[in-house]
């Protein structure tokens, strides 16, 4: 473990422990989070019920019929002693085609205006970065990615939409994400992709994993339609 | 089970009138939190297991979780023994009251109706060998928000015309020992909570209030979370970097009113927490009607595990 990582193991529930590795969001955390994830899965084996990595932590739910709380804490210490980070190049790079259009991305003008950019410049900016997948959550296959350029950072909508279409690509503060399925949500929506995130998650094989990189690529309405994309406009306007 | 046996023509139990919420549930999805998939599963897992126990089923067999009742009614197409546990939803068989925590025979032509809660909120109806339903990520549980589980694999609750079929033919006939069966909570009940590390971020005054006066179960309560109302709890943390959320986590958003995160909670979240209710306390809370007063009672993890193991032992005898 690198000297500036101070691991803390905290009680989260009767049979769950929070392994805290960092205090701030940073792409370089991911090499350690992924390494810890693998080490804990190996060490706990069938004594593991769930392990949920996030930006700075891993929540470990163990089987309390096989381990006591203090045995679980000891096993975590053992599993993570001498931990070394994984090779960050090991994560996959995903190319995600997005149809950026106001009909399916109602906040394009708003985010562009805040950034002092034209809509085309905003699209170019959003496509011009390999975003890191920090965590999966909120919905099956939903990946929290970042960090978007500071100029594009936009707070969540004051009133979340009741229905955000599946495939919607959005920004909230300095994060960006894709909605895997129709759900409520308050992110600023810029466009839509046809990548089947939900179907991957449902099979237990998420398309994005923490530490992966995602690059958005602007496509035309024709390309989006040819790929089977749904061009139904977003119902609700904020 | 062959494909032919799963198809529409199989006889079963037919929904004649839909109530507010009846969902197919088992113990839930585990080992999938890292996909962003929620746990789901029977909210009052104790009553759920008793329902399966009454018929001699594997205790994680898929059953129905019936919330409120509200006129939900069924007719069967052939004779079947069902088990009913949990809340007293004023269930009636052809107009005659059905006692909770027993199994009973339902004949073609008879009508089973769930009317309204008299005690508790969620009833469990178990079927011989468990319900047939597609398994997704290791579970038959329905989560509407995630469009997972259920007869049509859309996570939706039962609707008129749905036909439920089951795996077994010859269920056991068991009785729950008087002293052991599930009890519905009364106002003033205790909810054991294992304290978490973020407890230190709350003021001493807030902590005193958290554990020394009753909280009221709000009507903003569902399978995702149950809001408690009382004095506002304040601490030094407004939000935290999103991290995994265990079952029963008691999170405190900026308005100071705690929310207990239940089976269908989001997998990660960013509000500071007092700790997490024990699984036994979650089962209790799942049966509390809005307006019920509850006390948060700190427990150590080992004390909570001891209670949990004792509960599991009941079904092993």
Protein architecture, described:
- The complex is a heterodimer of chains A (238) and B (317).
- By secondary structure, chain A is of the alpha+beta class.
- Chain A folds into two domains: 82 residues, Gyrase A, domain 2 (2-Layer Sandwich); 135 residues, Cyclophilin-like (Cyclophilin, Beta Barrel).
- Chain A is built from six helices and 13 strands.
- A seven-stranded mixed β-barrel of chain A has the order 5-12-9-10-7-6-13. In chain A, strands 1-2-4-3 form a four-stranded antiparallel β-sheet, with helices on one face.
- In chain A, helix 1 crosses helix 2 and helix 3 crosses helix 4.
- The model of chain A has no long low-confidence stretch (mean pLDDT 94).
- By secondary structure, chain B is an alpha+beta fold.
- In chain B, a hairpin with a 7-residue loop joins strand 16 and strand 17.
- Chain B is globular.
- Classes of the chains: A alpha+beta (238), B alpha+beta (317).
- At the A-B interface, strand 1, strand 3, strand 4 and helix 5 of A face strand 15, strand 18 and helix 5 of B.
Structural class per helix/strand content of chain B? alpha+beta
CATH topology (fold) name of the largest domain in chain A: Cyclophilin
CATH architecture of the largest domain in chain A: Beta Barrel
Q: Order of strands side by side in the largest beta sheet of chain A?
A: 5-12-9-10-7-6-13
**How many domains of chain A, as an integer?**
2
Distance between the termini of chain A: 47 Å
Strand content of chain A: 25-35%
Low-pLDDT residue spans of chain B: 1-8
């Amino acid at each position: 473990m690198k000297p500036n990582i101070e691991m803390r193991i905290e009680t989260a529930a009767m049979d769950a422990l929070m392994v805290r590795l960092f205090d701030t969001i940073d792409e370089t955390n991911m090499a350690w989070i992924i390494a810890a994830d693998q080490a804990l899965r190996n060490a706990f084996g069938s004594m593991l019920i769930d392990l949920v990595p996030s930006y700075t932590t891993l929540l470990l739910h163990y089987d309390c019929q096989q381990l006591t709380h203090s045995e679980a804490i000891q096993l975590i210490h053992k599993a993570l002693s001498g931990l070394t980070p994984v090779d960050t190049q090991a994560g996959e790079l995903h190319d995600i085609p997005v149809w950026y259009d106001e009909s399916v991305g109602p906040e394009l003008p708003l985010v562009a205006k805040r950034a002092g950019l034209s809509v085309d410049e905003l699209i170019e900016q959003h496509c011009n970065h390999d975003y890191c997948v920090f965590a999966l959550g909120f919905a099956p296959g939903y990946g929290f990615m970042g960090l978007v350029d500071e100029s594009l950072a936009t707070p969540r909508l004051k009133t979340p939409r009741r229905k955000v279409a599946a495939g919607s690509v959005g920004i909230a503060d300095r994060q960006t994400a894709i909605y895997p399925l129709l759900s409520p949500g308050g992110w600023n929506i810029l466009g839509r992709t046809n990548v089947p995130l939900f179907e991957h998650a449902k099979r237990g094989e998420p398309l994005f994993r923490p530490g992966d990189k995602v690059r958005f690529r602007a496509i035309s309405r024709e390309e989006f339609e040819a790929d089977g994309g749904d061009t139904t406009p977003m119902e609700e306007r904020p | 089970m062959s494909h032919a046996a799963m198809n529409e023509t199989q006889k079963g139990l037919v929904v004649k009138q839909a109530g507010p919420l009846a969902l197919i549930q088992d113990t839930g999805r585990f080992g999938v939190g890292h996909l962003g998939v929620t746990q789901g599963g029977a909210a009052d897992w104790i009553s759920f297991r008793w329902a399966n126990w009454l018929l001699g089923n594997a205790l994680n067999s898929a059953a129905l979780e019936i919330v409120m009742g509200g006129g939900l009614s069924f007719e069967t197409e052939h004779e079947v023994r069902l088990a009913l546990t949990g809340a007293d939803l004023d269930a009636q068989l052809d107009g005659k009251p059905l006692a909770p925590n027993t199994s009973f025979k339902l004949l073609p032509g008879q009508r089973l109706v769930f009317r309204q809660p008299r005690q508790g909120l969620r009833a469990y109806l178990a079927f011989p060998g468990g319900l047939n339903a597609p398994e997704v990520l290791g579970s038959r549980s329905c989560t509407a928000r995630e469009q997972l589980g259920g007869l049509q694999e859309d996570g939706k609750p039962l609707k008129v015309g749905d036909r439920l079929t089951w795996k077994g033919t010859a269920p056991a006939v068991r009785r729950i020992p008087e002293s052991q069966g599930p009890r519905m909570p009364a106002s003033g009940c205790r909810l054991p909570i294992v304290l978490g590390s973020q407890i230190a971020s709350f003021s001493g005054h807030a902590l005193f209030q958290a554990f020394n006066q009753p909280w009221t179960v709000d009507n903003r309560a569902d399978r995702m979370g149950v809001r408690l109302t009382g004095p506002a709890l304040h601490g030094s943390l407004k939000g935290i970097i999103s991290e995994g959320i265990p079952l029963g986590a008691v999170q405190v958003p900026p308005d100071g009113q705690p929310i207990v995160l239940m089976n269908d909670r989001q997998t990660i979240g960013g509000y500071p927490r007092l700790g997490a209710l024990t699984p036994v306390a979650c089962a209790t809370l799942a049966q509390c009607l809005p307006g019920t007063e509850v006390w948060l009672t700190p427990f150590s993890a080992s004390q909570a595990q001891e209670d949990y193991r004792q509960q599991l032992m009941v079904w092993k005898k």
